[in-house]
């Protein structure tokens, strides 16, 4: 639970190793993919290049955007960069990598990617926490607060924390004097995927924590009407352990502009609308502020393999 892998597998942790509901493909398993094309022969080369991109960067199964189920071509006849250049809008996919490390397995690369992603997305406890065994509150250690503040995404997450707290309506005890980015009524993290379950563990009443339902704010893509259902928003940030033709492992972060948050689209917190912060790019288009800030992270460098 307190590991990078556990963080990404949040929806599955409570089920244990095997609950009879999901199958698991063992790491290192192989499959043969056969493509039969009955259309215009002129498109065959484009189809081959599309399959090559999927083989290099794609995945199978649940939590694929968070590094699980990553694929690797056993016979990479089509180099990744050549395959991407075949498509007119290849610039809309930016592939970056964390600094090279001496790792020889995908789990290590996945953990590195998830630690990076968590540093941009997580807020962390900043006031107090409930000690269940002793049935009492204790202050969050100052060192943990300092570590939270040093994460690149903390000022963004702090704005989202405050917006959720307003919707929750109870008010936090002894609020800490943090300075979030952005303006009131504007959020950041919906651009990285929805739904979000925001749980305020420090809220309490009569000396005990609030029931989970009362302390939770649900962030969703729609208000839940027939014309605009709640639904999900798939993240445009993909995490992918990747092994190149030389056997070297890379921790890739893939930004897919075509799937970024729509300009002007609100997010719904327990049914209440909030804006999502956007920035204007040099070409005049609009893009989520948090998404663009992640692209500029100095921990990332272009991937050219």
What labels describe this entry?
single chain, 305 residues, alpha+beta, 5-stranded mixed beta sheet, 4-stranded antiparallel beta sheet, 7 helices, globular
Describe this structure in words.
With 305 residues, the chain is of the alpha+beta class. Helices cover 23% and strands 20% of the residues. The protein contains seven helices and 15 strands. The chain has helices spanning 4-8, 44-57, 80-85, 106-121, 142-149, 154-168, 289-295, and strands spanning 93-98, 128-131, 136-139, 186-187, 196-199, 204-205, 208-209, 216-220, 237-243, 249-256, 267-269, 272-276, 278-280, 286-288, 300-302. A five-stranded mixed beta sheet has the order 4-12-11-8-5, with helices on one face. It has a four-stranded antiparallel beta sheet with strand order 9-10-1-15. The longest helix has 16 residues, at 106-121. The model has no long low-confidence stretch (mean pLDDT 88).
Summarize the structure.
The protein is 23% helix and 20% strand. With 305 residues, it is α+β, with helices and mostly antiparallel strands. The model has no long low-confidence stretch (mean pLDDT 88).
């Amino acid at each position: 639970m307190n590991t990078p892998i556990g963080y990404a597998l949040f929806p599955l942790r409570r089920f244990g190793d095997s609950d009879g509901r999901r199958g698991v493909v063992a790491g290192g398993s192989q499959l043969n993919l056969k493509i039969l094309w009955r259309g215009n022969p002129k498109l065959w080369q484009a189809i081959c290049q599309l399959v090559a991109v999927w083989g290099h960067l794609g995945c199978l199964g649940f939590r694929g955007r968070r590094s699980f189920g990553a694929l690797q071509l056993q016979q990479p006849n089509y180099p990744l960069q050549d395959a991407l250049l075949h498509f007119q809008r290849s610039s809309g996919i930016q592939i970056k990598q964390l600094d090279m490390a001496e790792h020889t397995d995908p789990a290590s690369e996945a953990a590195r990617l998830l630690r990076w992603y968590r540093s941009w997305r997580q807020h962390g406890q900043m006031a107090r926490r409930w000690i269940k065994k002793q049935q009492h509150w204790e202050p969050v250690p100052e060192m943990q607060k300092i570590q939270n503040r040093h994460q690149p995404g903390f000022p963004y997450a702090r704005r989202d924390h405050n917006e959720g707290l307003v919707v929750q309506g109870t008010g936090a005890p002894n609020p800490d004097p943090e300075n979030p980015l952005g303006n009131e009524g504007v959020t950041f993290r919906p651009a990285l995927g929805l739904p979000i379950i925001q749980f305020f563990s420090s809220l309490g009443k009569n000396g005990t924590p609030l029931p989970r339902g009362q302390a939770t704010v649900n962030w969703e893509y729609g208000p839940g009407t027939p014309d605009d259902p709640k639904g999900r928003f798939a993240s445009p940030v993909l995490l992918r352990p990747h092994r190149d033709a030389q056997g070297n492992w890379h921790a890739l972060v893939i930004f897919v502009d075509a799937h970024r948050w729509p300009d002007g689209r609100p997010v719904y917190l327990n049914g209440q609308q909030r804006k999502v912060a956007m920035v204007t790019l040099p070409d005049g288009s609009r893009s989520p502020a948090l998404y663009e800030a992640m692209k500029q992270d100095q921990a990332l460098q272009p991937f050219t393999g």
